[in-house]
Amino acid sequence: MLRVTELRLPLDHADGDLRAAVLARLDLPDDELIGYAVFRRAYDARRTSAITLTYTVDIEVADEAALLARRAGDRKLSPAPDTTYRFVARAARPPRLRPVVIGTGPCGLFAGLLLAQMGFRPLILDRGKAVRERTKDTWGLWRRSVLDPESNVQFGEGGAGTFSDGKLHSQISDPRHHGRKVLTEFVKAGAPPEILYVSKPHIGTFRLVTMVEQLRDTIEGLGGEYRFQSKVEDIDIAETQAGERRVRGVVLAGGEYIAADHVVLAVGHSARDTFAMLHARGVHVEAKPFSIGLRIEHPQSLIDRCRFGDHAGHKLLGAADYKLVHHAANGRAVYSFCMCPGGTVVAAASEPGRVVTNGMSQYSRNERNANAGIVVGISPADYPGHPLAGIAFQRHWEERAFAAGGGTYAAPGQRVGDFLAGRPSVALGAVVPSYRPGVHPTDLSTCLPDYAVAAIREALPAFDRQIKGFAMDDAVLTGVETRTSSPIRIRRDEAFQSVNTRGLYPAGEGAGYAGGILSAGVDGVRVAEAVALSMVEAPQGG
Ligand code: FAD
């Protein structure tokens, strides 16, 4: 298989045009092209009057070597890399002690799936409920203002990304094509096959729910076991004669002890009680940078028009997204985060008395509003003194938001015009906010540190110069956006184990090793490989 890159065609090209473009590019007679498959399709909308599609195509020809020789020096033709996933180990027999995976978010799911596929029969624990029951509890907050601290947008089967836009792009370095493995398994579990080739794939929340159920069936069919409502509340660490700290087991809420010598910790960025427990047990934890800010909503039609001009609404383009960055005069970077075209802003709190925003959408992305976090980078210098100080910082601003929203889990909100003018909103305008259970017009400057407010006030007009109307008076801001990534890192070594606790594998977003669904899934694959190799080598694992 050979790969041809950068084939440009007009947006509305006919079916046969791609084959013709391959033949023309390679100066190839028609009968020499046996077949082709689109590896990647992206669009270039820099000129809205002439939007083009850019293809990367894998081709089959009768004589690859001859074609490569003929086109020596053509940097847009090369052998296609082999992206087939190959397992690194296989359990010769069921392990005496099962590997334990804590968390069923994308990281824990893929760690569990890979371990199951390699024959290690993992035990997978989650503090929350199975996804259907969890969905009801999550709606409980959105519809009735009732928060279940163990079953919500952050906790339960599928993890934080289940009620999301399901965007699947990532910029991680992935030399072993683990991302391809994750996407392939997602498609087997029911994701739309196009996620394998479109440049900005997304799944939408509705399908994600059925996909995580399907992945559970697969894992259980391979001998893995799931246990929901099984919060890991403590971890048993012993010191060996050689002075090494080693995991011996985990303790569930309720007191049940589970012996384990390989524990994957994929608890996500909101498991604050678990982070505190790990720190108290001496596991190396350090503060790391993250971002805080607000969520903004505009009419999706405004974004579509600006990005796609007359092509707005074209079926291959879908609802338009954006990515914006501004470097503010006070030294802070402001950027758009987790942009959800045609989606809704969601209540994403997991602790009582706190308000957190995030965004989600359905596959169709056909809701009226576009939303995105507009967030400001912060670092441990802003919350100095303790490895867990970032959590206290998040809680402080989430409590402010709860109070400013009226103490009912309504989000505090403000018109952009009022926010920029420094006056509280008393009513909202033409853009109707989508956050449920509701939005309370107020002054959002009480919900963020002054430097973040100043940086966002400077960024919005700058963004308006890129997307005309971005700073429109009636665009709505809600807050606060605090769960952009983990406030801590649980440092691990090259064997993927905690730097001071053997057998503990910190993984995914919560441990500071992923940001988003795809990278969390990829980290799950990598950690599963490390666990499998260790279990194959270790006598107790085999
Ligand atoms: P998580 O998904 O957070 O999973 C952690 C799991 O661990 C949870 O199920 C939790 O219940 C469980 N757990 C925690 N503590 C314990 C314990 N002590 N014992 C047992 N179980 C425990 N990313 C994207 O790439 N694209 C998007 O479109 C997108 N949209 C998002 C929308 C929303 C509303 C949210 C909240 C997030 C979104 N994200 C998105 C981010 C993405 O969801 C996360 O990056 C990803 O889920 C992280 O995966 P993870 O497996 O590391 O952790």
TrEMBL record:
UniProt name for this protein: NAD(P)/FAD-dependent oxidoreductase
Record-annotated FAD-dependent protein C-terminal domain positions: 289-484
Chain segments annotated as coiled-coil in the UniProt record: none
InterPro entries associated with the record: FAD-binding_protein (IPR028348), FAD-depend_C (IPR049516), FAD/NAD-bd_sf (IPR036188)
Record lineage: Bacteria, Pseudomonadati, Pseudomonadota, Alphaproteobacteria, Acetobacterales
SUPFAM superfamilies according to UniProt: FAD/NAD(P)-binding domain
Name of one Pfam family that matches: FAD-depend_C
